[in-house]
Amino acid sequence: MGQGLSCNPTHDHHFFRAVQTGDLESVECMLQSEPSIIHHTTAYERLSALHIAAANGRIEVLCMVLDRLVNPDLLNRNKQTPLMLAAMHGKISCVQKLIEAGANDNETDLCCICFDQVCTIEVQDCGHQMCAHCTLALCCHSKPNPVTSCMPSPVCPFCRSNIARLVVAKSRDEEKDKENQSKSKRGPRRSRNLSEGSSSFKGLSSAMGSFGKRGSGRVADEPVDKP
User: Fold this and answer.
1) Is the pTM of this model over 0.85?
2) Are 207 and 136 in contact (CB under 8 A)?
3) Domain ranges for the chain
4) Of 75-79, 141-145, 217-221, highest mean pLDDT
5) Which residues form the RING-type domain (predicted)?
6) How much helix, strand and coil, in percent to the nearest 5, is found in the chain?
7) In whole angstroms, what is the distance from residue 214 CA to residue 152 CA?
């Protein structure tokens, strides 16, 4: 049975509020009186009870909902799963429980800085990945050295190694394609340059270029909708 909207928004609101606050007794009572409510979502964000419990760290409610649901990978309006929301909000126990319940943790690689956007940029030579927004912030918001008045070259926020260059990160599907191509003795895909593709990548390329000019030449260094 799929997700759907209820013709009784007030009843739904009470249910989602109980999930959000961790009112286990009320949640259980409403599920017993109307089992189908577990498949309902909030009106705008399309958040399920599982999304709300995961985002708020309500582990007992989460377990109760999981016991009644077949699919732990429900998507909200922004194509986010309960596992993604639990990770974004730092609800580790919910993350672990969802993975134990079979939630797909390989669908996307979320940026480990913001836990919001998918990793699209790879730092070379270290290979760490970030989303375009965090990479742009890293490159554009560095403060000048008070002694030399020069802009410091950006470094990888994970290992602090110098950033030689930025490339578009390959998705899991692309990596699988590359493996298949290698097996069939085809040439591997060429990495795309940041000057190709979307305006976000072009902006990153410009930002990195400006650091090169100023530096030494080589760039191194709400879960419930309100009624």
Assistant:
1) no
2) yes
3) 9-100, 121-214
4) 75-79
5) 111-160
6) 45, 5, 50
7) 9
The CATH number given to 9-100 is 1.25.40.20
Alpha-carbon distances, residue 51 vs 15, 21, 129, 147, 154 (angstroms): 13, 13, 26, 49, 36
How far does CA 99 lie from the centroid of its chain? 16
CA 205 to chain centre: 23
Specify whether the CB–CB gap between 48 and 76 falls below 8 A.
yes
DSSP per-residue letters across 127-163: --EE-HHHHHHHHH-PPPPTTT-PPPPPB-TTT--B-
Q: What is the pLDDT of residue 191?
A: 45
- Let me know: does 5 contact 41? Beta carbons within 8 Å: yes
- Enumerate the β-bridge partners of residue 178: none
- Evaluate whether 9 touches 24 at the Cβ level (below 8 Å): no
Angle, helices 59-68 vs 24-33, to 10°: value is: 20
In this predicted structure, which of 19-23, 133-137, 149-153, 198-202 has the lowest mean pLDDT? 198-202
